Amino acid sequence: MLKEFNPAVKCYIVEPETCAVYAGREITNANHKIQGGGYSMPELKFISRDRIDGFVKISNDEAILTARRLAREEGIFAGFSSGANVCAAMKLLQDECKGKTIVVLCCDSGLKYLSTDLWEEMTS
Known about the structure:
Blueprint: H1 2-5, E1 12-16, E2 54-58, H2 60-74, H3 80-94, H4 120-123
Parallel strand pairs: 1-2
Helix pairs in contact: 2-3
């Protein structure tokens, strides 16, 4: 939708590195921690490939470390996928989007992840 208003807008899909199916990669490990990513192609019927400009693969560790940084440095208490999204934005800013403005969605609160290893190190 944004591209209809401004064709210069670029849209990227953030995917778990072991399940980058939309980028055309094989699933090597479906047990990733980034909830909301790594779906099989039939489940992605509402995404238009012609609106996607690129793909960024993020590891579990990158998502976790970035989510922890968001909490510690920015006061944003978010989950695995938010950590992945912000990590992807930081990677893009170091490379092809250097000097550009990036909008990132933080999809949920970190509350439902308190019993996972996402916050294990910070609470022990």
